[in-house]
């Protein structure tokens, strides 16, 4: 499920951005891999 945004914001938004960016890159890479699969 989704992480508790309220608690995460207490730790710092930089962590949220880094985590979101990482997930976005992983999903984008997986999508490219699936679409380019033979």
Can you offer a commentary on this structure?
The structure is a single chain. The protein has one domain (5-36). Helices cover 82% and strands 0% of the residues. The protein has helices spanning 5-11, 13-36. The longest helix has 24 residues, at 13-36. The chain is elongated, with a radius of gyration of 14 Å. 0% of the residues are buried.
Task: Note the topology.
Layout: H1 5-11, H2 13-36
Percent in helix: over 70%
Tell me the count of domains. 1
Main sheet attributes: strand count, strand direction, barrel closure: none
Number of helices: 2
Shape: elongated
Count of DSSP E strands? 0
Which consecutive residue ranges, at least 5 long each, have pLDDT under 50?
Answer: none
Summary, kept brief:
The protein has two helices and no strands.
Descriptive key words:
single chain; 38 residues; mainly alpha
